[in-house]
Amino acid sequence: MAVPRPRLLFVDAYDSFSNNIISLLRLQLCADVTTIRIDDKRFLDVDNAPFHAFLRRFDAVVVGPGPGDPRRPEDVGVIDKLWNLPQQSLVPVLGVCLGFQSLILAFGGTVARLAEPRHGLVKQVVHSQQSLFDGVEDVRATQYHSWHAQLGHDTIEAGSSSSWQPATQAPQLAPLAWDLSDSQNGPVLMAVKHTEKPFWGVQYHPESVCTNEAGARIIQNWWQEAQAWSTAAELSSQTVTWTSLDIPADADLIPALSELIQEETGELPILLESGTKQGKPVRSETGRYSVLCLVEADRRVFRYWTDRRCLDVRVGDAVEESHAINVTESFDRIKSWVRDRRMIDGPANIPFWGGLVGLVSYEAGLESIAVPPAVADELGPDICFVSVQRSFVIDHVDKKVYIQSLNGFDDAWANEMRNRLGQIASKADKHVETRQENGPAWKSTIHRPEREGYCTKVRDCQRFIQAGDSYELCLTDRSAVTFQQDEEYSTPSPTDIYNRLRRTNPAPFGAFITLEDFSIMSSSPERFLSWSRDGLCEFRPIKGTVQKRPGTTREAAEAILKTDKEQAENLMIVDLIRHDLNGVVGLSGGSALAPKLMQVEEYETVYQLVSVIRGQLNATMQHGIDVLKASLPPGSMTGAPKKRSCELLKAIEGRRRGAYSGVLGYLDIGGGGDFSVVIRSVIKDKRGYSIAAGGAVTALSDPLAEWEEMMAKSTAVQV
After folding, report:
1. What is the pTM assigned to this prediction?
2. Most exposed: 315, 595, 624, 681, by fewest CB within 10 Å?
3. pLDDT of 430 above 80
4. For residue 141, what is the enclosing H or E element?
């Protein structure tokens, strides 16, 4: 099998010797070399994402010589961007002459004019016999420079070990070679390497016809070191960097940790929160862990629109890819991205190490079953996933927080966060439910659906059911939310709204996501689908609701939820989900089972009827995303049969649902995933703020009771 040719990028600073360096690279390394100029207009913008994306095409970069002052931005252009690459975008770089001087300046060194310029002089160089000079003997180096770089060494003496140690001024730069032959200029630094990053530099010109054979040898040595670093980085990139910290049993870390993350990134974190009460998870079976994700500047975002049939992949603010494909193909691309980056050695007892976090709208689910949306009116992307490299996971049972990173060699960051978190934890507020609101005062008006109009829609559903078009229709409606604006009241931020929601209605699948032009503040009780790293899938549909009122006991709720009407609602969705799951696990000989059937669970404001359906994937052939895309939209939000029910609901409701009754959650880089149904939520999109709610209509439904159930769910979301 042929060895792939190195892919090198050469950054040309308008020097007359550039082609000679490129020729040397091609000859010595059999490399394919692409050239850009230092003032390439594609990459001079403040936004670095396009440059980072471009660099991913290359194995390494060589920065050439050029005229001018290395301290002057217009003389170095994009070169300075190389020294500031984020950890996940690092690439090996060799700087020659101007590139070398720019490297020195980037890491604490200085440059000064030589007493006498050295143009076309060939001098003997002393070196450390390490790194670029491993196995190299005599070096006669051709020099073309008016500036020399300084690291802050007091004295340089031949044979002294201190000559090869970093100086305090530039502690990350280790000298590799010096020219000690010039009494007029004194010792002149000829080569360095960065002690932590894959950066090397030489002051002299290895390509010159008068530089001896050592010029070719240092190019070969550089490439060997670059390959070694890349191999180690690739291995490290498959390793989760993590540490953990015990936390006080009664500490509510979420607000303080959110502030720490926002301070670190300048962006609000993505929060997938398992609600707590008196310091304990409200439902530890499904809500043991909370995940806080850093949204970083060079994040990767997958966005898909059903109306356009278009997936784009953005890095930072720049679109890197755009594909005219459908929703199924979009899921396949997302699956490939996650699979290609799979890791196996994060903390085994927590479900999320990093990966993708986001949502899938109800309309994306409709497309997957060939049902057009109700109206062609985009509310935002129908699929939106953002990459998460750094995150925190709180274990509310073991009282431990995990600090983790997918960026290779990120121990310094993890340890810094651990130390800062330790200081925060000791001062954190206590229980969520006792905290007072500190945000601005606000007064909301919720524009509920009219009772008679909703009851009419219930009767419309029943006519279709009686005609045999559906067994059950999950009718929903939307309530717009507006806020009073005057001297006394102001509009709350999404953060303010979520903080009230997590206090008044803690739920196992709370979520706060602000991406693109939308925000979701959720207190969902319902898991849609989860799968473990070894492929065990679980659905937990909720169908059947009793509102908690004064005097409502669990026994009374159970009596209501055991009626034929409530049991039938749940049973029909269980069988629908078994159908969806069997369509995937059945391909590898598996089967969908229901180990928990129609059991009553108690939540903060309601009692719910819950079932559990499970199936085992063939982990070598299938992925949880295969089940996800085969099961949308959520059966508990559609009815059965699903396709016909969705077509009927589209006509009855006459509007797009958007994020509501879609799903949100994460795709773990370790192979797992967990998604909740977007219910009991406040959503902000281009229409403004809204709450939506509904219920399953069957032939046994009473329209007024359905109205009351919808109102009970809607009023549980306090805005």
Report:
1. 0.72
2. 595
3. no
4. strand 139-150
